Amino acid sequence: MADVKKVKKAKAPKVANPLEATIDVASQEMIVRAQELGIDTVFDRAVTMKPCAIGLQGICCKNCSMGPCRLPLPKDGIEGEDTRKGLCGATANTIAARNFIRMIAGGASAHSDHGRCVAEVFMAAARKETEAYQIKDTDKLLQIAPALGVDITVDVDGEIKDRDIDEIALEVAEVALAEWGKPEGEILYMKRAPEALYEKWKKLGVLPRNIDREIVEIMHRTHMGVDQDYKNLMKQGTRAALADGWGGSMLATDLQDVLFGTPYPVQSEANLGIMKEDHVNLIVHGHEPVLSEILVAVAQSQEMVDYAKEKGAKGIQLGGICCTANEILQRHGIPTAATFLQQELAIITGACDAMVVDIQCIMQNLANVAKCFHTKLITTHPIAKMEQDNVIHIEFDEAYALEDAKKIVKMAIDNFENRSSEVMIPQYKSSQVAGFGVESIQYHLGGTFRGTYYTLNDNIINGRIRGIAGVVGCNNARTKHNDGHIKVVKELIKNDVIVLTTGCNAIACAMEGLLTPEAAAVHCGPGLAEVCETVGIPPVLHLGSCVDNSRILLAATEVVKAGGLGNDICDLPAAGSAPEWMSEKAISIGHYFVASGVYTVFGVTLPTSGAPVFHKYISDEFEKITGGKWDLEIDPIKHAQKMIAHIDKKRAELGIDKARERVLMDMADRQKLEA
Ligand code: SF4
Ligand code: MSK
């Protein structure tokens, strides 16, 4: 094993100090290993390359070639009028707003283009043009069809009868695909929101028309010399973010569920220790489950397992990174190998026989790291290639999905015997239960007779559960890996706030053992612990990948519908958080949460600090418009406490704060928590 302490004593911090870079012991060991081998990782690069302070504050404009125009805040702040302006006269507010909504456009396009790919595969399955994909979950199909205006009981002649499932699937595919570019109307799923919220959006004029249009309009409005009013720019940012959360992402989630099955709780494991020295290790990384679903089926086939044994391995170990991990975990229980920041480390184990990547969150340096080992790095998506010559591109075609998947799995198996360097797999992994969703929360926390989310609402009203938090998002090499995630989540559950998680936050929580029912007794306040122990759920519920944040929107809607907690999402004792965000997708997610009425706190930084008026607008002013607001809090405990304060404010507004005092202000419980 590598000696962590030895590196701690190293003087010149040209490389990362593993103890400062991450709280995860497996990652610490692998950072040391990388440094011993002379391979740089993102942790080291974060030490040697500092971010641009002006860009960080959101006040650098490079939207035309007269710039970049940089508008630093004066050292002593601004007294009186803010006279900063770019060559064209653009103010700091305009520049920050333009940059902010361009980030929304980037994030919304990533989620939504992912959704479009799924919709195209869905269409191929509905038309029965592919053997690899079928309509698997017909219950889910029947559940989403009415929301897309597809009648499930009236046939084309208007007669009442149960329609043929193939016919429904085809119509759902046609309507869904049209959501990206239909010429008129609004995104159909907007009406799934609580009525009060839908009416609010309508009044504000922010109902998205179609997904692509809202993203394109951001690019137009932020072009040099177009929209110069930060409030009007944010209006378009809101439309595009809503088109993501309630459109592209929600369609991606639903269509994936119909194609591959709606997730239900499954048991699995997480961290680099899931890799096995005597197995072929095939790691899938990225976001779309379209290929990884088939890879799972092929890698688990007897033919491939036998082939692996012929080649001297004991079997095939599949593992996931980032949201591909979350997708194959929630539907098949495939273990999670790594978070975003650990992707290079998975190769540095020397045991990664192939890493298959598709889209989003894939570091280009993977190719440089793979060069140092035998690892085959395989890109599969036509829109995401790498320039390095050691990268193999096998373009995935859904018409030949099985053949492509077999080729990839065989390539990994054939590579097993080529392992060139010493294998070092850190022996750390944790158990996890994942695969929660709107349906399974209803099953675990619902009531058979009294309304779908009755038990959850009842426990919120009586105060055992103080509130609900959605904690999501990435890792960021500018902050200690997983530290913010874990501190925020622990502080929330300690204070009886149930946590819904997705993305890399979910992976971090899994690595920390927070996704097990047993975690409730160890980490929760007495009220939440009692509920978790009674129904047998973890205090942190893993709802899937980044696009599955749409599940959180629908879960919140179900809570509203179940009654007793107001009539809009902004009435709920709920808050959102992304403690270690880095991706443009996080800004889009954050903004569709804010636009849906959720108080949303980000850690690390927000690209708005250089334009205080604009920052105030998206926080305080926005709260008056949508009921949701942005906030930034770097300290994880204060971050969680701000969320709890908001939850308590909402409890007081609902008149349910007294109930909580009765239930929880027991001295023995308090002492137990403080200990
Ligand atoms: Fe500068 Fe205006 Fe051009 Fe931006 S658009 S780079 S502020 S001149
Ligand atoms: S993978 S977007 S680092 S959560 Fe969805 Fe993780 Fe963030 Fe990528």
From TrEMBL:
Tell me the SUPFAM superfamilies matching this sequence. Prismane protein-like
Give the catalytic activity: CO + 2 oxidized [2Fe-2S]-[ferredoxin] + H2O = 2 reduced [2Fe-2S]-[ferredoxin] + CO2 + 2 H(+)
Pfam families named among the record's database cross-references? Prismane
Name the InterPro entries on file: CO_DH_a-bundle, CODH, HCP/CODH, Prismane-like_a/b-sand, Prismane-like_sf
Q: Which GO terms describe its molecular function?
A: 4 iron, 4 sulfur cluster binding; anaerobic carbon-monoxide dehydrogenase activity; hydroxylamine reductase activity; nickel cation binding; peroxidase activity
Q: Which residues bind [Ni-4Fe-4S] cluster?
A: H287, C323, C361, C474, C504, C546
**GO biological process assignments:** generation of precursor metabolites and energy; response to hydrogen peroxide
Highest taxon in the source lineage = Bacteria
Instruction: Supply the enzyme class, top level.
Output: oxidoreductase
Q: Which residues cross the membrane?
A: none
Q: Where does [4Fe-4S] cluster 2 bind?
A: C61, C64, C69, C88
Q: What is its EC number?
A: 1.2.7.4
Residues recorded as binding [4Fe-4S] cluster 1, renumbered to this chain, are C52, C60
Q: What is this protein called?
A: Carbon monoxide dehydrogenase
Source species: Desulfocicer vacuolatum DSM 3385
The cofactors named for this UniProt entry are:
[4Fe-4S] cluster
Q: Which UniProt keywords apply?
A: 4Fe-4S, Iron, Iron-sulfur, Metal-binding, Nickel, Oxidoreductase
